[in-house]
Design the sequence.
């Protein structure tokens, strides 16, 4: 590959990365309608030249998300009233279908999971926490779409919701939304598909009228509260779910945001290939390339990377690939547990997973301090609802490793259990460690310690050599690692 080809590939990859990140920030309200997007500032924030930023903005303009305004430059586009009407019409049909399908096939565990989200929304509404309300609302609807069992529904809804989130700041009738979510859950719980579909259509229609009424009164408005931009954030963490389950990603992201410092930005990514959840060495091997691809796609925009699956798929290789700290939730949980007690035990979600977990403990040099690994024995109903389906049994196992195995510390292992430690800590008489929370805290600490990249030793970048069959992003990341100095 010529030098010119390398530059072209790198700039093309960076362009796509910058485009995706700006699109994400527009969708979640961090870049509200009317916000100026200045090329040089974005280039500085993302660590690129202005060329990929300029190309990314042109692509976003073709999507209708940004516009060029004379004497102002590029700004986040405002949706017209007609745009809103068209988008809401489409969303109404898709949401009604999702809720109809979900009601017809929902499991008790999935219904309990929706109730947990409802309680989180209640607390956020009472506390006036706008960002938490938006996050829970998004998680609620994405979980229903996953429950529907039609993978194309999510693909169809994503761009519609993304465009509508540009207007998120002008629709905050949270009391109504809460009541409607409660009624929707009741319809799903009752298995009444027709009622669920009708309520979903009415839910979207009410949102449409509320948004249009406020639009008519005020016009487009930015999201309420302070807007965090990359320049405001102390650091930026890329959190990667090596499983393909978006319901697990929702759990990971929620716990990561709770665990992170206020100035930390969490960027969540989910593997595009692999298995629903990883239980074996082979499944971990399959996850490695998917994780490497996600990390490569992030380029130089993250200050650290957190691999959020117990077992840390691909972790040693990722430490060679990038010049920033890479933390696995397994090594983070084990390191944290080793500071809290002499002997530790792991509570796992399946028997099949325990040999691999034991390998992971041995790889981290802590097998001599492992008291036991105990696991659930019953089949899982859904990977995103393990906490709701087996919460009491997980607590029983945690207490059992203390009383019978002599554990000083309990690790609740696996991304599907993210956040559970916070809820059950008062039911277990020893410290309880959450891998996601530990991973976030240790990644933040490593960034602030600023130890520098590995230029020698076993985690130094690989030697330069020919390659083929790699994606442009991974090829660019590999070449950057080979030339790290």
Sequence:
């Amino acid at each position: 590959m010529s030098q010119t080809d390398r530059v072209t590939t790198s700039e093309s990859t960076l362009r796509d990365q910058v485009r995706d990140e700006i699109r994400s920030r527009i969708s979640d309200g961090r870049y509200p309608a009317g916000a100026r997007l200045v090329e040089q500032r974005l280039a500085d924030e993302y660590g690129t030249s202005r060329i990929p930023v300029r190309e990314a903005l042109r692509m976003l303009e073709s999507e209708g998300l940004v516009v060029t305004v004379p004497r102002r430059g590029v700004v986040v586009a405002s949706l017209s009233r007609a745009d809103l009407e068209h988008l809401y019409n489409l969303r109404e049909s898709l949401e009604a279908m999702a809720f109809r399908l979900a009601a017809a096939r929902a499991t008790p565990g999935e219904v309990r999971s929706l109730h947990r989200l409802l309680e989180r929304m209640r607390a956020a509404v009472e506390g006036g926490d706008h960002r938490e309300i938006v996050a829970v609302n998004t998680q609620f609807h994405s979980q229903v779409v996953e429950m529907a069992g039609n993978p194309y529904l999510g693909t169809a809804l994503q761009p519609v919701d993304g465009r509508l989130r540009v207007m998120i700041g002008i629709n905050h009738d949270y009391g109504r939304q809460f009541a409607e979510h409660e009624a929707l859950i009741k319809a799903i719980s009752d298995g009444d598909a027709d009622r669920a579909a009708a309520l979903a259509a009415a839910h979207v229609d009410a949102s449409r009228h509320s948004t249009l009424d406020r639009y008519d009164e005020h016009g487009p408005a930015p999201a309420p509260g302070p807007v965090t931009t990359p320049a405001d954030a102390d650091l930026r963490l890329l959190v990667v779910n090596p499983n393909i389950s978006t319901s697990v990603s929702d759990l990971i992201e929620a716990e990561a945001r709770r665990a992170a410092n206020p100035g930390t930005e969490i960027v969540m990514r989910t593997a595009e290939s692999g298995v629903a959840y990883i239980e074996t060495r082979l499944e971990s091997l399959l996850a490695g390339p998917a994780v490497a691809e996600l990390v490569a796609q992030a380029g130089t925009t993250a200050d650290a990377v957190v691999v959020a699956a117990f077992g840390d798929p691909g972790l040693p290789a990722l430490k060679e690939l990038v010049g920033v700290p890479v933390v696995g939730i397994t090594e983070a949980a084990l390191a944290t547990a080793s500071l809290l007690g002499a002997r530790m035990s792991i509570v796992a979600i399946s028997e099949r997973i325990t040999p691999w977990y034991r390998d992971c403990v041995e790889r981290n040099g802590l097998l001599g301090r492992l008291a036991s690994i105990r696991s659930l024995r019953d089949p899982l109903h859904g990977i995103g609802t393990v906490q709701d389906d087996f919460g009491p049994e997980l607590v029983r196992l945690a207490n059992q490793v203390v009383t019978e195995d002599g554990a000083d510390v309990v690790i609740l292992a696996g991304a599907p259990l993210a956040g559970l430690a916070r809820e059950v800590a008062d039911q277990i008489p020893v410290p309880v460690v959450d891998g996601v929370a530990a991973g976030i805290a240790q990644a933040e600490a490593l960034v602030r310690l600023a130890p520098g990249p590995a230029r020698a030793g076993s985690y130094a970048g690989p030697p330069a050599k020919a390659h083929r069959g790699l994606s442009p992003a991974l090829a660019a990341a590999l070449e950057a690692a080979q030339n790290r100095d």
In short: The longest strand covers residues 235-241. Residues 339-434 form a domain with the Rossmann fold fold (CATH 3.40.50.12500). The chain has 18 helices and ten strands.
